[in-house]
Amino acid sequence: MSNYHIKHLEEYFQVYRKSVRNPEGFWEEIAEEHFLWRKKWDNVLSWNFSKPEVKWFENAKLNITENCIDRHLATRGDKTAILFEPNNPIEEAQHITYRELHQRVCKMANVLKGNGVKKGDRVCIYLPMIPELVVSLLACARIGAIHSVIFAGFSANAIASRINDSDCKIVLTSDGSFRGKKSIDLKGIVDVALDYCPGVKTVLVAKRTNAEIEMKAGRDKWLQPLLDNAYGDCVPEIMDAEDPLFILYTSGSTGKPKGMVHTCAGYMVYTAYTFKNIFQYKEDDVYWCTADIGWITGHSYIVYGPLANGATTVMFEGVPSYPDYGRFWEVVEKHKVTQFYTAPTAIRALAKENLEFVEKYDLSSLKVLGSVGEPINEEAWHWYNHNIGKNKNPIVDTWWQTETGGIMISPIPYVTPTTPTYATLPFIGIQPALMNESGEELIGNQVEGHLCIKFPWPSIARTIWGDHKRYRETYFLTYKDKYFTGDGALRDGVGYYRITGRVDDVIIVSGHNLGTAPIEDSINEHPAVAESAIVGFSHSVKGNALYGYVILKEVGESRDRDNLRREINQQITEHIGPIAKLDKIQFVSGLPKTRSGKIMRRILRKIASKDINNLGDISTLLNPEVVQEIIDNAL
Ligand code: PRX
User: Fold this and answer.
1) In degrees, to the nearest 5, what angle opens at C-alpha 230 toward C-alphas 208 and 106?
2) Closest CA to ligand 1's atom 18
3) Which pick of 61, 451, 576, 609 has the fewest CB atoms within 10 Å?
4) Highest mean pLDDT among 407-411, 530-534, 550-554, 620-624
5) Strand runs (DSSP E) across 283-425, as ranges?
6) Using an 8 Å Cβ cutoff, are 70 and 103 in contact?
7) The pLDDT of residue 534 is above 60
8) Of all residues in the chain, what percent carry a pLDDT higher than 70?
9) Where are the alpha helices (DSSP H) in 480-624?
C-alpha cells in the first residue's frame, strides 16, 4: 500500500529508485493493489523502442469504467463524482453522484449500442463542457468503443479530417454551446463537416442551448428521448489491457494532426497514480481542473485519473471572464475547491485584471495549485503563488504531453520544494534524458539539451492511428532507443528540470499546440497568396502569438491590405479554428531561404521578436537582400 501515496521527500527518492531499478515489479505492485482486474496479466511489460512497441500488463482483462465507477458504488455511491458548474452562475450547479453517473453512463452505453456501436468502433464526440461529454466518454469505454473527442472550438474542416482519419460512423454533438456571453451553433458546424464525411450514418444531439437547429431526417436523433427509454444498467465489455481506449488528435510540425492512441490498462494505472500524488488527493477534497475535455488534460485529469480515485471532479462549462474576471475564484469559494489546476495563459490573463476580482472571494479551501500546457513565466508564477496560493499552497508545474498520457515531470506538493518556472523532478517511473546535437546523452547536472525519455511508462501512446510509421519517425528515430518529446530542457545544479520550450515547428499559443505547416497551407489556399511562413513571438497573455509573413501573387498587389488580413484569418478560422488566427500579418516580397530552398525561420523569429541586432550570418542565404526589406516593414 505504502507506495501509492507519497508523503515526504525521502519517500519520493526511495520509491523513485525502486521504480527505476525494477519498473516491472514496481508497477505490478501498484496495479495489483489499487485496481480491479477481470484477469491478471501474464507479463508486466514488453517493449522495444526501435520497432517501436510497448505493452503493459499483457493479456490482463479489465474495464476502466468498473474502476472509475462501479467499484466506488458500495462505499461512495452518494458521493459527488461530477460537480457540474454551468456557464451562467444563475443556473444551478449539478452534483452527479457515483450512483447517478453509473446509471447515466449505462443508459448512454445502451443508446450507443442501440445505434449499432460495437467494441472497437470509433465514436466522434464534439460536445461542449456539459455532463453528456463525460458520460459519453465513459459510455464508449463501457462498451469498448474508441472515443475520439474533438475540442468544440475546432472548425468544420478540422472535424471532417479527424472523423475521416479514424473512420467514425457516429457523432455525438449538441444543439449548441454557451461560452460566456456567446452561444455557438455546434450542430451547424457538424452539419458542414459531415458534407465531407460520407461514413457518418448517425448523429446524436444533446440539448443545451435550445437553439432552433435543423435535424437531418434518417441521420440526426435527439439524445434525450433515447436516454429516457434506455435501460439503466449495462454489463461492461471485458477489454484487453492493450485494447485502444481512445484516440486524441494533436498537431505535429508537419502534415495532418496525429491521432494518438491510448490503451486501457497502462493509461488507467498511470493517470490514477499521478492524480493521487501530484494533487495529493484526499477523500473529501473537491478537485478542479479548468481544462476542456477536448484536450488530454481533460481526459486524464478531469475524467479518468480523478474518477479512478473516487474523487469529486469539477467540470466547468464557462470561461474565466464571464460574468466577470472573478469567475474562477467565485467557483473556488462556492464549491470549496481544494486543488485547482489551470494553464499559464489563464493566469496571465487574470493577472492583468484588478486584484479586487480575487480579493472578493474566500480562497482558504485551496491546498494545491497546478499549472500545465506551456512554460509558466516567473511573473505569472509569483502572481499565482502570492494572490491565489497566499504564499502557502505549493504550485505544481506539471510537464507532459498528449503523447505521454499523464504527468511526467512535476513537483509533488508538500513533498518536493518548488522553484518558479521549474517542473522540478521526474515523477515516479519516469527516466528523462537530455541529449546533445550529436545524439549523446548529457550526463550530470547543469546541462541543457533535447528532452527524451529512456524507458517506457504505462501511459505512453502506443501508436498514431493508422500510421505507425509516422509514430516511429516522429518520436523514436531522432535518438536511438529513446522517446523524443520535441521539447528542450535544462537540468540545473540540483537536478531540477526546467522546460525551455519546443525545439520543432510546433508553437504553443494559449496552451494549444499549433503546427506551422497546416496554418501555412491554409493561408496559401487564399487566391491572392503565393507563399507564407509562420513563426511565434512572445505575447504577454497567450505566451506565444503567431506572426505570418505572406508573399502575394500579383493579383493581390492592388487589394486592400487590411481586408486581405481579415480574409486570411477568416480562412484559418474555417480550416482550423479561431485559436490558430494570426496576430500579425506582414506582406513581404520574399522569404529568407537557404540555398536548398528551406525557409530560415530563425531569422523570421528574430524579426518578429524585434531582436534584429543578432541575426547571425545571412550571407549564405539565397536572397539576403530580402532580410532588410522585411526588417524595414516589420510590424
Ligand atoms: O511543449 C510542451 C508544453 O506542451 C506540449 C504538449 O502539449 P499537449 O500535447 O497539447 O499537452 C498539453 C497538456 C499536457 C509539451 O511538449 N508543455 C506542457 N506542459 C508544460 C509544457 N511546457 C512547459 N512546462 C509545462 N508544465
Assistant:
1) 85
2) 373
3) 609
4) 407-411
5) 286-289, 312-316, 339-342, 368-372, 395-398
6) no
7) yes
8) 99
9) 516-524, 561-575, 601-608
235 Cα to the center of ligand 1, angstroms: 37
Cis ω before 52 (30° cut-off from 0): yes
Residue among 149, 345, 369, 372 to mutate when testing ligand 1 (max atoms within 8 A of CB): 372
Give the dihedral of Cα atoms 435, 441, 443, 447; nearest 10 deg.
-10
Distance 378 CA to ligand 1 centre (A): 17
Q: Which residue has the cell 443556473?
A: 91
- The pTM (predicted TM-score) of the whole model is 0.95
- CA angle centred on 183, ends 182 and 185, rounded to 5°: 140
Strand order through the sheet with 543-552: 529-539, 543-552, 584-588
Taken in order 482, 475, 301, 109, the sign of the CA dihedral is negative
Residue 399 CA to ligand 1 centre (angstroms): 6
- Given a cut of 80, is residue 254 above it in pLDDT? no
Look-up of cell digits 518548488: 418
Beta bridge partners, 588, equal 551
Tell me which residues have their CB closer than 6 angstroms to ligand 1. Answer: 250, 296-297, 371-375, 397-402, 423, 485-487, 499, 502, 508, 513
Could you tell me what percent of the chain has a pLDDT over 90? 92
Report CA-CA distances (Å) from 185 to 128, 161, 171: 11, 19, 15
Name the residue at shortest CA distance from atom 24 of ligand 1: 375
Question: What are 140-198's pLDDT values in tens digits?
Answer: 999 999 999 999 999 999 999 999 999 999 999 999 999 999 999 999 999 999 999 99
Residues in the chain: 635
Cα(553)–Cα(547) distance, integer angstroms: 19
Are the CB atoms for 591 and 626 separated by under 8 Å?
A: yes
Cα separation, 24 vs 46, whole angstroms: 9
The H-assigned helical ranges of 337-467 are 344-351, 356-359, 378-383
User: What percentage of the chain's residues is helix, strand, coil (to nearest 5)?
Assistant: 35, 25, 40
CB 491 within 8 A of CB 497: yes
Instruction: Give the distance (Å) from ligand 1 centre to CA of residue 267.
Output: 18
Amino acid at 232: G
Q: Is 406 exposed, middle or buried (0-12, 13-18, 19+ CB in 10 A)?
A: buried
Strands 463-464 and 339-342 come out as unpaired
Residue type, 373: G
Q: What is the rounded distance in angstroms from the CA atom of residue 622 to the CA atom of residue 632?
A: 19
**Helix (H) or strand (E) run with residue 99 in it:** helix 98-114
Do residues 6 and 415 touch, judged by C-beta distance below 8 A? yes
Q: Strands, E, within 28-154: which ranges?
A: 43-48, 53-58, 61-62, 80-85, 94-97, 122-125, 146-149
Q: Which of 538, 622, 632 is closest to 588 using CA atoms?
A: 632
258-263 and 463-464 strand pairing: antiparallel
